[in-house]
Specification:
This protein is of the alpha/beta class. The protein contains seven helices and seven strands. The chain has one domain: Endonuclease Chain A (Endonuclease, Chain A, 2-Layer Sandwich).
């Protein structure tokens, strides 16, 4: 598979219409987020004040949506949901605050959808960035793919998931 070192921010800067994110895992254990999850497990809950959580990613989403890019995130989750998904759900109010649309799809409703094997970001119709993870949820690095057939597969998979999924405000865990 072709690899390229273009950073997420560079890909997003080239995006004119749509950035979509498909998440397939029931837990992640990467970087600072792992520490935040452990803190959540011990009872801490996210602060509603954007000053406490607003970060560079939120700025990129806000700026991209201001220029007309539609951001959508779809999460396929097992039910009953894992503790990590409960944590993620509890923090998801941050995504729409930046301009991102988020939906949830129970895994049992995705059985007949041809899905890529990895989480991904799809930028318009020019690039897919796969996010690879280790078995324990650590990052194994991104991989960029610009092949038209791969982009088409990922776009079709995402649209199928999006069509069936429940908007964040209506999904109950």
């Amino acid at each position: 598979m072709p690899q390229n070192d273009r950073a997420f921010a560079d890909l997003l800067a080239d995006t004119r219409n749509s950035a979509v994110h498909l998440e397939l895992r029931d837990s992640y254990g990467i970087g600072e987020e792992a520490a935040e999850f452990r803190s959540w497990q011990s009872g801490r809950r996210p602060d509603a004040d954007p000053a406490a959580w607003w970060n560079e990613f939120h700025v990129m989403v806000r700026d991209a949506t201001a220029r007309g890019v539609v951001f959508r995130r779809a999460r396929i989750v097992s039910e009953p949901v894992s503790d990590y998904i409960r944590y993620e759900y509890g923090c998801t109010y941050q995504n729409p605050a930046a301009g991102e649309l988020v939906r949830w799809l129970p895994r049992r409703k995705a059985s007949d959808i041809a899905l890529p094997g990895n989480d991904l970001w799809l930028f318009d119709d020019f690039a897919v960035m796969f996010n690879h993870f280790t078995g324990d949820g650590g990052s194994a690095g991104p991989e960029l793919d610009e092949r038209p057939a791969v982009i088409k597969l990922c776009a079709a998979a995402f649209e199928s998931v999006w069509e069936r999924s429940t908007p964040h405000g209506e999904y109950e865990i």
